[in-house]
Amino acid sequence: MKTAAALLFALAVGLAALAVLQRGSTPARGQTALTVYCAAGLKQPVEAVAAKYRTEFGIEVRLQYGPTGGLLSNLRVAKQGDLFIAADDGSLADARKFELVREALPLVRQHPVIAVRAGNPKNIRSVADLQRDDVKLALTNPDAASISRVTKKALGETWTKLVARATVMKPTVTEIAADLSLGAVDAAILWDATVPQFKGAEAVVVPELKSHVENASAAVLAFCTQPTAALRFARYLSAPEQGGAVFKAHGFQLADGDKWAEKPELILYSGGVNRLAIEKLLKQFADREGVNLTTVFNGCGVLCATMKTMKDANAPRFPDAYFACDLCFVPPVAAQFPEAVMLTETDIGITVRKGNPHGVKTLADLALPGLKVGLCNAEQSTLGYMTRGMLKSTGLLESVRKNVVVEVPTADFLINQMRAGGLDAAIVYRVNAIPQAEHLEFFPIKHEGAKAVQPFAVRELSPNRQLARRLLAHLQANRGEFEQAGFLWRGNEPAIKSADIKVPEYLQAK
Prior knowledge:
By secondary structure, this protein is α/β, with parallel strands linked by helices. The N and C termini lie far apart (97 Å).
């Protein structure tokens, strides 16, 4: 019996040891905790979402609450943590000014209201009523809480009068909401979504405050040591069917969050010319976000044709973002991509072998007898489309075409053939020729159309539109990579409506 017991004991110890080894070899998904600093008015829904996330993924979320301004002050000193949930756009702007945050995901929208006790026993209907002698008013400190900073800006001098009459002034919106709920005061200025979180309170919407809508956002802290995990939780918070459902149940109006996926896939269509600058940046972005980023490089004619064949913009493989070689290839897909941001530009010219043995410098020179010329295909690529327009407008199309021995979808094919000695000259972008400066020369074409502007657009109905916008922000934050590749930078210009893009007349004719 003793021997059997000993064997059973040894077996139990062995199984326990095996279990420990197995746990050690495959770390639990929840081993790394996240530290989140959250505006007090968002405590209830964020706490509920954090508990849901912890249950679903085993990841501990440590929440620290306070007035938004106070949290910002603490973060400037401590410089620790993963996420900052700001109650308003102004606080997020301050965090950016102090270089405390990087990516920001909008969660909900809210605006200030007058909160009163249930049934509105004091019949408070306007901001003016808050100044009555029989009304006890509670406010938050504008130096600490976002709600009062927004209200102060909205009301101007009236705010000063309200402060003079306030019975109570406390640091957070939840503290004055609690005073109202307990009947200690008759009214308070709260976020519209805060009111339903407290018993015995109701909202009075007034025109002076209604239009001051603010986004509450989750932003990754600049000193976060686990940005991928922080971004995943932020995506969960903002997803309509995950955190969004909790926020909605608490009375919040949802912002424009992406559909939830633990590891979403972002599809980018890009003109071939952009590959030179963005390949490394795309990998950086995908690694930091913890997402799959599928990039299709091709001529923009091919890319637009592919999108048109899909017909339905909700098709599973329809791109979430489109980075064209030139503005002229945005109008064909303007319905799906209604807005574009110019990032860069590059000029178009003629490349020849070093020493220019055939003396080719102009469009007219491309018609010299016996010359072997390479062009991009006008139906498949932006460069080919623009080349055809320039040749036609100068009356050189037919004479140059007699020398064309190859037409390809993208200019990198032409560069390869130039290096291999199969061509005497080719029309390419300057950025294509720069890496081959030791072997090839480049002569800019003197024509109004010899310049391409590269726009980036996000698909309006993409389930990953916020992710795509963060990709755009990542590209805009890395101007140096584009300039190093030879592009001229235009990424600080405001977005333009795709419908307003005018294709020059010389490009419109076939």
